[in-house]
Design a protein that fits this description.
two-stranded antiparallel ribbon, 5 helices, 10 strands, YbaK protein
Amino acid sequence: MKLATLLEQRGIHFERTIHPPTYTAQTLAAEEHESGYRVAKPVVVKGEGGFVMCVVPACARVELEAVGRLLRDKTVRLATETEMAEMFPECDLGAEPPVGELFGLPTLMDDSLQDEDFLLLQAGTHTEAIKMRREDYQEIARPRIDSIASYE
């Protein structure tokens, strides 16, 4: 199921934008004239218990050690491109929406995203984005919230 379809089914207001192709969350932020702190970047990790979708601001990176501590799993690593392609066959590689529920994955969200009124999300392609209220995002994603990001 596509993110826009899920939002429409749940009656959640969102804005959809079309933009030139972007291949990183930071480039998406620039193209949409938004702060990287408002772009919810998905990063999929794998541990002993399976895959987990981590969501951090575009300008941050996932701290694997922090995720490992939360999951009580010392084997946490980034998912490979092959694993990603298999998990998200309906999405452009690297453009999956940061909503684990769409794909049967638990979601971890960095607590810094709670400071934002709205979030910008990748919508499954390199040319489409969705802007929505952060509270609505949390309602559909049902993330576990903790500190999982670092800034360089």
